[in-house]
Specification:
There is one protein chain. By secondary structure, this protein is α+β, with helices and mostly antiparallel strands. Helix content is about 30%, strand content about 35%. It has helices at about 1-10, 25-30, 75-90, 105-115, and strands spanning about 35-40, 40-50, 60-70, 95-100, 120-130, 130-140. Strands 1-2-3-4-6-5 form a six-stranded mixed beta sheet, sandwiched between helices. It is globular.
Length: about 140
């Protein structure tokens, strides 16, 4: 999973992070709702849900993350992970899942659109990446 996160960092399209977090930090930041796609022990991708907020009023709102290994992109793994994450989240009472995607990450924007997310806005100049302020597209998927 760490190597896949590092693929995302190297791409410049997936995260503001400049290094993969330790397992302890990653584990503490995500809910137990997490999925791994693998082929004969080779991890090809992962998806996880984290809390949108610790406030009780946002109990059914989560933030999704999905990463697919560079060698496995374009084979439907991201979509399968997201569809399962959404289904599992709904069973657990989540009614809204949010995601933040860089505007230049067209593959991720298309993936989120295919699984029912819609753009709700843009956080302009949200963070700094490689010395430059970058925008983040905010997406949301609401359960019926």
């Amino acid at each position: 999973m760490r190597a896949i996160f590092e693929d995302g960092i190297a791409s410049g399209k997936a995260t503001f992070d400049r290094w993969a977090p330790s397992w302890e930090d990653w584990n503490g930041a995500h809910l137990p709702l997490r999925l791994v796609a693998e082929d004969e022990g080779d991890v090809l991708g992962w998806a996880a849900l984290s809390s949108y907020s610790h406030r009780e009023c946002y109990r059914g709102v989560g933030e999704s993350r999905v990463y697919v290994a560079e060698r496995a992109r374009g084979h439907g793994i991201g979509r399968a992970l997201m569809e399962r994450l959404i289904a599992d989240a709904e069973v657990q009472g989540y009614y809204s899942i949010h995601a933040g995607v860089f505007p230049w990450n067209e593959e991720s924007l298309k993936l989120h659109e295919r699984v029912g997310f819609r753009v709700v806005g843009v956080h302009e100049r949200l963070g700094v990446l490689d010395g430059e302020w970058k925008d983040v597209v905010v997406l949301e998927r609401r359960s019926p």
